Amino acid sequence: MHVRTLTSGFAAVLLASLPVLSGQALAADPPGDIAAALAAARVLTYDASGSAEFRSAVDRGAAIWNESVDGAELRPAAAGQRANIRILADDGWPRALTTSLGNGTVWIGRQAVNEGYDTVRISSHELGHILGLPDRKPGPCSSLMSGSSAGVPCTKPYPNTAEKAEVEDNFTGAVNSPSAVMGSVPVLVED
Asked: Based on the number of CB atoms within 10 Å of its own CB, is 186 exposed (0-12), middle (13-18) or buried (19 or more)?
């Protein structure tokens, strides 16, 4: 899907440029297939096959985002499909490496789990980074992106109203600008 979207986006830019280069003005909306390709960019697939004992927490974290926002939808990748998001378990601290909006790698670190942090909150928080949200530390439990600064007793896995709105804004812009989804500046967020 990523290659198809990239190819469709390149083709759209090329097709839109031809009338301008030939001296003709173009004032129409993009053709339906291009608009559909841009809208499809909001569907993000994830591969949790490397998430070990955290698989159910990862699926629940993705479901929480799907319940909370309309601008992006997280779906498990089909067998053999290249996923936008790779989710792994390791012995370190939870973290996310975003390569662009909606793309990257999440590590569900056992160190935080061993200290008592909630696995679903960790998953939802790290997926929030992939959806474009920064850490907000120190922060209250009501803020999902406050991460570990909310303390071990905090198990709230849902984004607050401002966090939901920020994700919606991120993906509204991404649908209107394919380059926002296809950028490639890696950002490591270690919680």
From this structure: exposed
